[in-house]
TrEMBL record:
Residues 271-391 form the Thiolase C-terminal domain. PANTHER family: ACETYL-COA C-ACYLTRANSFERASE, BLR7806 PROTEIN. InterPro entries: Thiolase, Thiolase-like, Thiolase_C, Thiolase_CS, Thiolase_N. PROSITE patterns: THIOLASE_2 (PS00737). Residues 7-262 form the Thiolase N-terminal domain. The keyword Acyltransferase applies. Transmembrane segments: none annotated. It comes from Aquibium pacificus. CDD domains: thiolase (cd00751). This is Thiolase family protein. GO terms for molecular function: acyltransferase activity. Keywords: Acyltransferase, Transferase. Its EC number is 2.3.1.-. Gene3D superfamilies: 3.40.47.10.
């Protein structure tokens, strides 16, 4: 039978604010991920001892996330000791890449049953912890891109300028993200994808990050987050409209996906939810940094023999509002299909977990909305992007 990789199930934690008083801040990231792994095996009825590998995305692999968090989490969840794990870091696309590697391993015959996903506790392991004071670029990269690469926030400003996206457009997009997420939450649409997490203060069952009452007036008073004297001097053309309100939220969260080969699923009596159509990963200008999803989308559509109009649901990570807006403008996509349940501006961006979170939301939304094809893409530090197309079964 076919070695085609299939998605059997996909779940995520609620999203917690990445602050010391956030809903998930009391939970060690290993315990957070372990609860999801336990829930995934219970939902699907699989024997965890039959899992060939656990591939987990995580960006800040230091401190509590330093000891191969997938391995520690599966041991915490009671999996047999013979089950291995590894950790993937493709920055914001880490868990999407983990899913790619899992699916590609199945197609190659290396795996029959794999768990892929990601975890990031940004309240406990702050963003940038792995870098500290070190220079991650080195002299040759600095010379090639003199006078130097910039932060993602400044890159978001450059993207806004290149595509002539105004502050008002970014704020309007951010407000819509919160409204869409609030509608999905209040209608119960997220109930099938969220696994309640037991924290020190009790169970966490809903996303903490959604602000359904967000208004344009409230967003309008926020100051630009990345304007400094040095940045303003280097980029006098920037209008400086990227704020905390139209950027993704620092968040705690995890998400996992169970994959199996078609042959194994049939033998084990597992009911698949979706299949993979095509994959892509692409690099682009590391100064603009956030534009690679545009070309990755073109390539993944071509690989799948599909057109943009064939896709029913797009998940383009809302690292900053300018990213999905530029993507949509460049490709001429239908904005009503773009992040219809909100994105990282409303739901948050737990770096290593976001790719699997997007996949989980997309599978559930396609099922509930009667769609067939879904496409997701994720901008990544250094100017890269993963792209994936799935088809419901």
């Amino acid at each position: 039978m076919s070695r085609a990789p299939l998605i059997i199930d996909a779940v995520r934690s609620p999203m917690g604010r990445g602050k010391s008083n956030g809903a998930l801040a009391s939970i060690h990231p290993v315990e957070l991920l372990a609860q999801l792994l336990s829930s995934l095996t219970q939902r699907t009825g699989i024997d965890p001892g039959l899992v060939d590998d656990v591939i987990i995305g995580c960006v800040s692999q230091v401190s509590e996330q330093s000891a191969t968090p997938g391995r520690m989490a599966l041991l915490a969840a009671g999996f047999p000791e013979h089950v291995p794990a590894t950790t993937i870091d493709r920055k914001c696309g880490s868990s999407q890449q983990a899913i790619h590697f899992a699916a590609q391993g199945i197609a190659a015959g290396a795996y029959d049953l794999v768990i892929a996903g990601g975890v990031e506790s940004m309240s406990r392991v702050p963003m940038g912890s792995a870098r500290q004071q070190a220079d991650p670029f080195g002299p040759s990269v600095r010379k090639r891109y003199s006078p130097g690469l910039v932060s993602q926030g400044v890159a978001a400003e450059l993207v806004a300028g290149k595509w002539h996206i105004s502050r008002e457009e970014m704020d309007a997009y951010a407000m819509a993200s919160h409204q869409r997420a609030a509608t999905a939450r209040d209608s119960g649409a997220f109930a099938t994808e969220i696994v309640p997490i037991v924290a020190d203060h009790g169970p966490v069952e809903r996303d903490e990050t959604i602000r359904g009452a967000t208004t344009m007036d409230g967003l309008g008073v926020l100051e630009p987050a990345f304007r400094t004297d040095d940045n303003a001097a280097r980029f006098p053309e920037i209008n400086w409209g990227v704020t905390p309100g139209n950027s993704s939220q620092i968040t705690d969260g995890a998400a996992v996906v169970l994959l199996a080969s078609e042959a194994y699923a049939a033998k084990a009596g597992l009911t698949p939810r979706a299949r993979f159509v095509s994959f892509d990963v692409r690099g682009d200008d590391p100064l603009l940094m956030l534009t690679a999803p545009i070309e990755a989308t073109r390539r993944v559509l071509a690989k799948g023999g599909l057109s943009l109009s064939d896709i029913d649901h797009f998940e383009i990570n809302e690292a900053f509002a300018s990213v999905p807006l530029a993507w949509c403008m460049s490709l001429g996509a239908d904005p009503s299909k773009l992040n219809p349940r909100g994105g990282a501006i409303a739901l948050g961006h737990p770096l290593g977990a976001s790719g699997a979170r997007l996949m989980t939301t997309m599978v559930n939304a396609l099922e509930q909305g009667g769609g067939r094809y879904g496409l997701q893409s994720m901008c990544e530090a250094g100017g890269m992007a993963n792209a994936t197309i799935i088809e419901l079964i």
